[in-house]
Design brief:
Elements: E1 5-9, H1 16-27, E2 30-33, H2 34-47, H3 55-64, E3 67-70, E4 77-80, E5 83-84, H4 92-101, H5 105-118, E6 124-128, H6 131-135, E7 141-146, H7 149-160, H8 168-184, E8 197-200, H9 206-220
Parallel strand pairs: 1-6, 1-7, 2-6, 7-8
Antiparallel strand pairs: 3-4, 4-5
Helix pairs in contact: 1-9, 2-4, 3-5, 4-8, 7-8
Bound molecules: 2'-deoxycytidine-5'-monophosphate (DC).
Length: about 220
Amino acid sequence: MQPLLITIDGPAGAGKTTVSRSLAKRLGYRYIDTGALYRGVAFEAKSKGLSHDDDVGLENLCMSLDLKFVFAEEGSRLFSNNKDITDQIRNSEISMLASAVSARPVVRRYLLDLQRNMGNGKGVVFEGRDMGTVVFPSADIKFFLDASCKTRALRRYKELSSKTSLTIDEIEQDINQRDENDRTRSLAPLKPADDAIIVDSTYLSADEVVELMLSHIGKCMC
Ligand code: DC
């Protein structure tokens, strides 16, 4: 089979990261978490004291940024200007700030080219919000992974358990707020592409979702 470009979009906590990583491993593909790039911009904006709506400041920041993934057996690491920031971008403050800066056209423009360059050569699974609609409208296979809000909050809670003092209810509120921001922004809002395969993972394990996706990939490529 020719190497494919596969996109997996969906809201926060739907299981995209686990599923995308595992699907990529099964296919021998690279896996790219584009949310980490938005988090990287948010992290650097915060370090420089920039407000999420300071477009001039964000544009200058993006022009000076060098974000890249370094791929390793244990997973990929995100480097910003040669500094490993992987462990500093996973907290609720950066989550909210990433959602806010992702609505700014200057940030989306900067990351669009970066993401498209990362897709050269195919054999890659891209995870995000607008992979199938905007970044790779001609992707070979597009999935939209969803789950109920309660399920997503519970999964995020388990994932963060030792690293957060937030309750499940607070995590659910954060997720709802981010969904609202991501779905209603005017530029590249979170939504399934017209030709996306919708997968509801509310009652499915990550392994079951991966098997389902592999069967769709097999069928689509016949
Ligand atoms: O997938 P994540 O939770 O790490 O993403 C963080 C934020 O980045 C998310 O709230 C919206 C934004 N994002 C985006 O706008 N487009 C993408 N392709 C990926 C993430």
